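WARN retry 2 of 3 for item q-0093 after timeout on previous attempt; input resubmitted unchanged.
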Amino acid sequence: MQRPTGKSRHRVLDRVHDAVSGLRNVTRRPVADDDRPRALAVSCRHSEQEALQEAFRAAGWELAIADSVTAALARQKKFPVPIILCGRDFPESDWQKTVLMFTGLQERPWVILLSSRCDQNLWEELTAIGGSDILRTPLNAGAVTRSVKSGWQLWRHLRHIHDVTKSEL
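OK item q-0093 returned
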């Protein structure tokens, strides 16, 4: 594949800049009914599942729950969702490998880690492997809503930038 050069390259960069400029108004843009956040929670504790279900129900969003990494990956490959809410306790794998599995998919989701520990080292470790955010447990409905809404809107903008750039090449 040939990279754009000269004026063509500048048009691509201008369109990417235009798409990114919209990020300033992300929180003020209303979300259409048919364009609600959809997420998959994987290997969360029962209390975390209940808190997530309550927050999603109150916001009118869609949430699926998978009890294992294997089930979550199978579901994500068949019916991809943009947001993955990932617990840290996996009997079949550690959380780092799980995050890598999801971020390595062709349709890359926004991965939010659920953790009782939330510090700079964890944040750096998560983002180094492609994760996007950390939600501190025990979960707070307001924090869940803010994190998911923000992740959803950023995921949509990044996908739009990818689509614009791809169409210009």
